[in-house]
Amino acid sequence: MEQFKGTTILCVRRDKQVVIGGDGQVSQGNIILKGNARKVRRLYQNKVIAGFAGGTADAFTLFERFEKKLDAYQGHLTRAAVELAKDWRSDRALRRLEAVLIVADAESSLMITGNGDVIEPERGLIAIGSGGAYAQAAATALFENTPLAARTIVEQALKIAADICVYTNHNCIIEEL
């Protein structure tokens, strides 16, 4: 069976506001299986927002593991992310999971991968998924050349990505802190 492909997840941090948005399309090859998937959600007492690209079941497993790490480290995002990345890379079962996470709280935004990466973006912008490069390019242009709020940048950049990327749709979920 062909691996699920697609998604656009974008995180923008500006003026003490952080926003993560993602589209709702789930594709298998060139077939759209679902158009209203919820790939962005709140975690840890609504103090953390997270989005995923990759296999849905894998992402849900990672969300559960990440929330347990947040509980274990009293909501400290960076410490929980590093511990999840270490487990993800070293655990035989977790190592097979194919997804990437973007997580954010009031202070930090991070991308977590199965390679053991925990990456904090330089300018407060980070994107993942098939349409991630399109969304990040659009968000960068809006961020650097306009005074728009983080939410507006995410909305507009996801719209642009959906207009370009066949694996991204206009049915977006946006969460902000």
Blueprint of the fold:
Blueprint: E1 4-5, E2 9-14, E3 17-22, E4 26-28, E5 31-34, E6 40-43, E7 48-54, H1 56-72, H2 77-90, E8 99-104, E9 109-112, E10 118-119, E11 125-128, H3 132-145, H4 150-164, E12 173-176
Antiparallel strand pairs: 1-4, 2-3, 2-11, 3-12, 4-5, 6-7, 7-8, 8-9, 9-10
Compact summary:
Helices cover 34% and strands 29% of the residues.
Strand content: 25-35%
Number of strands: 12
Query: Unreliable segments (pLDDT under 50, ≥5 consecutive)?
Result: none
Order of helices and strands: EEEEEEEHHEEEEHHE
Mean pLDDT: 92
Terminal residue distance: 38 Å
Number of helices: 4
Short descriptors:
about 35% helix, 4 helices, 4-stranded antiparallel β-sheet, single chain
Structural summary, described in words:
The protein has helices at residues 56-72, 77-90, 132-145, 150-164; strands spanning 4-5, 9-14, 17-22, 26-28, 31-34, 40-43, 48-54, 99-104, 109-112, 118-119, 125-128, 173-176. The chain has 177 residues and is α+β, with helices and mostly antiparallel strands. α1 (56-72) packs across α2 (77-90) and α3 (132-145) crosses α4 (150-164). The longest helix is centred in the middle third of the chain and has 17 residues, at 56-72.
